[in-house]
Design goal:
nine-stranded mixed β-sheet; ten-stranded mixed β-sheet; Metallo-beta-lactamase, Chain A; globular; single chain; 9 helices; alpha/beta
Length: about 375
């Protein structure tokens, strides 16, 4: 394990104070808590912005995304990337665009014909909203932000067939990893997810949306076309439908960020694959997961936690299997996980709940 610098910052400074430490010329990433959905903001070295997904419908997630953009000093979205059309990824999109102008939209195109939860009303409104400034991405397509390269690696159940820099070797992690029966999934648009690898100098991160297990195998086997990354956003919120060893172990991330909710994602199988991943130094979570109890990451790495009494109850009297006990109340305030990356490959991850930061040297 490589040596790291660890810095504890005063919580009183607030999230804005933490982000202010970003040096000119850095890439800043904001993982917004959408309670088990996704919304991730990237702000490049010149202030150019990429927003990936827009969380759930309603004022809760919309407000959190808007507050994050204001904190980051973002007044418009240069690139809005939609991984797929499920409500926990596009729920606030239409309302969001009434508050912030969007210069360009990216998505995987027509949703999967058999998906039973994609909203036809949303799709109609989205088609109208994005007309004339929309790109349906294909594997190998690139989006260029100033100083940053974004390469599409998956879209509409099609996958990259060329090798990115650092990729191309045989993927030994495919051995013994069998496909799953996904025929009964009522939400197959997950498997259509548009995913990308983002590179800033020597720093690399990957976001595959909710790409499912079999799609990961198509992407990563028998060759590892992506190569190693520094930071991996867990596929599908840390659900066992995704996050195969063929993907995670081949990526060899130093850091994983899990965009789970309290009871959504963060499952035992996902934790096991992550903990077995070679070279993983730390797992950071947006939420303490009821699904794994004591196997959660240490509290300093978890952005949103339950109060001690609630955790004690969850550990000593867990909800019956298959029932879940219903979702706990949303956390307020909702804390972020942020990343500040440098061109030399160094990056700092911060938990805005407690001000805990950890800097990872270039490898």
């Amino acid at each position: 394990m490589r040596a790291v610098f660890v810095t504890c910052l005063c919580l009183a400074a607030g999230a804005a104070g933490l982000i202010a430490q970003a040096r000119p010329g850095s890439l800043t990433i904001y993982y917004v808590d959408t309670e088990g959905g996704q919304s991730t903001l990237f702000v490049g070295p010149t202030g150019e912005s990429l927003l990936v997904d827009t969380g759930n419908a309603g004022e809760r997630d919309l407000g959190r995304i808007v507050d994050t953009l204001k904190m980051a000093g973002v007044t418009k979205i240069d690139h809005l990337w939609t991984t797929h059309y499920h409500g926990d990824h596009v729920g606030a999109l239409l309302a969001f665009t009434k508050q912030f102008p969007v210069m360009h939209f990216y998505d995987h195109g027509t949703p999967h014909a058999n998906d039973r939860i994609v909203s036809a009303a949303f799709l109609s409104a989205y088609d109208e909203l994005s007309r004339g400034k929309r790109t349906v991405v294909k594997p190998g397509d690139t989006v260029r932000m100033t100083g940053i390269d974004i390469t599409t690696v998956a879209s509409a159940n099609r996958f990259l067939r060329s090798n990115l820099p650092g990729g191309g070797g045989a993927n030994a992690s495919c051995a013994g990893v069998a496909p799953k029966d996904e025929s009964a999934y009522f939400d197959p648009d997950n498997g259509e997810s548009a995913g990308f690898v983002l590179t800033y100098g020597r720093f690399r991160t990957v976001d595959l949306g909710d790409l499912t297990w079999n799609g990961e195998l198509d992407l990563m086997c028998p060759s590892n076309r992506i190569g190693p990354v520094d930071l991996y956003l867990t596929s599908h919120h840390g659900l066992e439908k995704s996050g195969s060893p063929a993907l995670v172990h081949a990526l060899r991330p130093r850091v994983a960020v899990m965009n789970n909710g309290t009871r959504k994602g963060g499952t035992p199988d996902a934790f096991r694959v992550l903990h077995e991943s070679p070279g993983l130094e730390d797992l950071w979570q947006l939420h303490w997961s009821y699904n794994v109890g004591l196997d959660n990451a240490p509290a300093v790495f978890v952005a949103n936690v339950e109060d001690p009494a609630t955790i004690a109850t969850a550990l000593t009297a867990p909800a019956p299997a298959g029932r879940g006990g219903g979702p706990p109340a949303a956390h307020a305030p909702a804390y972020l996980i942020t990343v500040i990356a440098q061109q030399d490959g160094a990056f700092t991850v911060t938990n805005t709940r407690n001000g805990f930061s950890k800097t990872y040297r270039p490898r």
